[in-house]
Every structure is written in C-alpha cells, then in structure tokens.
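Let us practice reading a record.
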Amino acid sequence: MAHLVRIGLLGFGTVGQAVASLVRPFGVTQFEVTKALVRDLDRPRPMPLPLTTRPQDILDDPSIDVVVEVIGGREPARTWIAQALSRGKAVVTANKEVMAYHGPDLLALAQQHNTFLGYEASVGGGIPVLDALRYHLTTANVKTVAGVLNGTSNYLLWAMSRGQEYQEALREAQRLGYAESDPRADVEGLDAARKLVLLVFLAFGRWLDVDRLPVRGIAPWPPELWTRLQRQDLVLRLVALARETPDHEIEAQVSPVLLPTRHPWSQLEGAQNGIFVDTSAGSFWLEGPGAGGLATATSIWADIRRSLARPQPEPVRPLHPTIAVPATLPTLAISRDPDRTLSETRYHLLPTDPSMGYCLRPFEPEDGVEYFPVWDGGFASASTE
C-alpha cells in the first residue's frame, strides 16, 4: 500500500525550489510538498505551490510530516526547528550555523520526541560526507578529518591564483551565485569553522566551541605573491583541519594553508569542495560541489528518505563544548618585499628564494612578513592524476 509523506518548506529560494523540483517516489512511499514559507506572496516563482508568509501554517499543520528548513541564519530558524521537533515532525536542515551553535540541544530534542533531525546538506552541499562518517566509518578509528569546505573562498583563491584581483573575483563569484552579497562569513573562515564543528562531532564525538576555534580567513593578497608561490610549486587553499592527538585533545583550525600544486585540494577549481578522512581502515577522499541548489537538494532528499526510519540515528548524550587547540603545522614565512632576504637565524631559507623561509622555532610575527601553515597531513604527495 502506498504511503504519502507531506513536506513543508521553510524557505522557497534557490534551494527550496530545487527540493520541490526533485519530488520522486521512494519504493512505496510518495512525497508531496504541500506548502512553502515565503516573504513575498506576489513575487513570481517558477512552479505553482501553496505559499504562506506565516511559519505556523507549516509548523502547526498536523498533516505535514517533514519540515525542511532552508532560510539560513540562527534565528528564527533555530526556534522553528525546535517547534517542529517538539510537535513530533521530522526536520531536515541545510543550516550549518544553527547546527554548529545549537546542534546538541536540537538533536536531544529530536530524540526526546522520537523523531529525526537531518543535516547532511549543512556540510559540503552535495557531498555525502556526514553520511559517510555517521554510517560507513563508524567501526574505523578516525584520525584526521580535513577539507576545503567553503566554495566562495575556494573560488576566490582559485581566481586570484589565475591572475584576477580580489574585488574582481568577488564580483564574478557573486554574479555566478557562489558568493553572498555579504561574503564575510565565507571569506573570514566562519562558514568553514561551523562545518568543521559538525565533522568533528561525527568523527570524534566531541562538540567544539565554535567561537573559540582558531580561525583565519583569506585576504586580497597581491598578484605578485601568487606568482612567487607558483615558482615554488605552491598553492593556497582555505583548509579546515581537525585531528585527535595521542593525549585525546582535538587539534583544530581553519586557515589558509600552502599545498603542493599536485595536491588534490590544489586541483579544486571554482567552488568545488574536497574532504579528506584518514582512518585506521585507510584514507578516503570525497569531492564535489559544495553549494548550489540541486547539489544541496540531493543531500536534503537523502535525509528526507532517512527520516522514514526514525528515530534519530546517532545516540545523543550530554555534550559540553570542547575547546580545540591550534594544529601544529610547519610554517612558511614570506617577505612582502620580494627583494628582502629573511634572517637565517630566524628561518630556514629556501635555496631558490631567500625571501621565503621555514620557521625554525616558535616565533614572534615580524613586520612585512606573511606566515602560512604548510600541509603535513600525510596526504601531500597525492595526485588526482
């Protein structure tokens, strides 16, 4: 006998419309998007669907089984997710900000009401990395999880490495839909930090305090810097990294990191994301679109289907925020003046360019010098060829 699952959308923008366009049967289960929350009822939309400006028309509707939240931001999204869970509805969200700050409470609420909270789409868009950590790698001891997790920053770094000025690259990213009108959360590393919190939870069972996570974003570095890095076969990417130390601390940070040009992260073009998981069973690499309506909607639909097998898949115990310690990576110092020779007592200079050198010991930052971590994660010699 066919079973009908009714879905309400909180948000009907690019992602919400993509979710509605992908309605398909799943075995004997039929799905129907019955209502969508919008700000403006009069705005033209590409598909007919009952619309409302009142969230309670979805949250209080007993016929709606699954609520999909795609409005973004912390509030009122958190409140609406909590209300839906309290009413016993399954919830699927793409909201990494809400989950990074309120995930433990919301997951516990889902468990309390014997329902489901899915958030696969909150990390990596269409890349099924949370699914891999939650279901496929549960018997393998995870040692490291790291990745290029933000499409906006990766597009900007990729474009600057190809000679574009920062502002020009940002305007192009906004035109293509890769960057928000206010891109600060992306370029300052905050978006990647929120995603890293979720990866750490599933990889190590800890919940990082996102506000105390070491985070450094990208900057409008001049074209000359990119030319000098390319001469050394180096590329910059914004990398989110977490690993467990022998003392069971979590080393974690988000930072621009230098990589060999043949490294898979260096090969990521435009807004692509790539995630590396090193475990006792081997190393795994996942790559795909980190954003976009259809890519995100595929992850949302995976969670909608998983919601049919309630309750919440992972047991939720009381979680107290863990404070991460900065990762210990080698550091390359680069003089902003290419004609300046760095001090040999402070740095191990590169034979081909004495304006660059590895830091020999803990150091105080020096005026006129940029400092970048260098990836040493046992993945550096990998190639996509």
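A brief commentary: Residues 129-289+329-373 form a domain with the Dihydrodipicolinate Reductase; domain 2 fold (CATH 3.30.360.10).
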